[in-house]
Write a structure and sequence with these properties.
Largest interface: A-B, 21 and 19 residues
Number of helices of chain A: 5
Strand order of the largest sheet of chain A: 4-3-2-1-5
Order of helices and strands of chain A: EHEHEHHEHE
Largest sheet of chain A: 5 strands, parallel
Number of strands of chain A: 5
Strand content of chain A: 15-25%
Shape of chain B: globular
Helix content of chain B: 25-40%
Distance between the termini of chain A: 25 Å
CATH superfamily of chain B: DsrEFH-like
Helix content of chain A: 25-40%
Number of domains of chain A: 1
Oligomer: heterodimer
Number of helices of chain B: 4
Number of domains of chain B: 1
Distance between the termini of chain B: 22 Å
CATH class of chain A: Alpha Beta
Radius of gyration of chain A: 14 Å
Strand order of the largest sheet of chain B: 4-3-2-1-5
CATH superfamily of chain A: DsrEFH-like
CATH architecture of chain B: 3-Layer(aba) Sandwich
CATH topology of chain A: Hypothetical Protein Ychn, Chain: A
CATH architecture of chain A: 3-Layer(aba) Sandwich
CATH class of chain B: Alpha Beta
Largest sheet of chain B: 5 strands, parallel
Number of strands of chain B: 5
Order of helices and strands of chain B: EHEHEHEHE
Shape of chain A: globular
Amino acid sequence: MRIAIVVRSGPASSQSSRSALRFTQAVLDAGHDVHRVFFHGDGTYNANTLSVVPQDEEDLSASWAALGREHDLDLVICVASALKRGMLDASEADRYERPAASVRPEFVISGLGQLADAALDADRMVTFGG
Amino acid sequence: MATLHLINKSPTRSDALASCLRVLAPGDALLLIEDGVYAAVADSTGSQALLGHVCHALAADIAARGLQTRLADGVRVIDEAGFVDLCVHCDRVMSWF
């Protein structure tokens, strides 16, 4: 079964990013396909490569990136949500003449079309956050 | 066509559970996660609202809040693998905020 996951909260603001990460791992452990993980609103902060997390806390952004690398996940952050929060990859930083990129390379910046596509293509869509 | 309803807010802080219960259909499943597990505490307003409904709650979120011994009768405690199974067995998943 192909399952899409939507994350609407940042790693520092609620438990939902962690819930979504645990669920995504369980989906993979059960042998299902993760169609896409779409990060929307404050969820785009999960892609932040500049955040520094205390050593006794889980670095959820790093955990998402590691899971993405391990399973070749499609980790997509919403472009409109991302730009207004300062979440830019190298090409967006260049385009808008900002001094640094802030998005981890495991994440892709794209549009809401990717969310609509996931809703149509995946067998299930599970939303976390809010 | 069963729906899995996800509640992640405490019933004392949000009307998500009450809103959900208004549209819960026979055969639907209900899963409490994060602060939503407070609705499973015995003799609370949340658990009274849940009387007559099949209710699941996520084990890790119950343990994180120290509620293991305070759950209402009939609450089905599941882990993340059980969460995935519920998603698969229902036709769709709806999150209430």
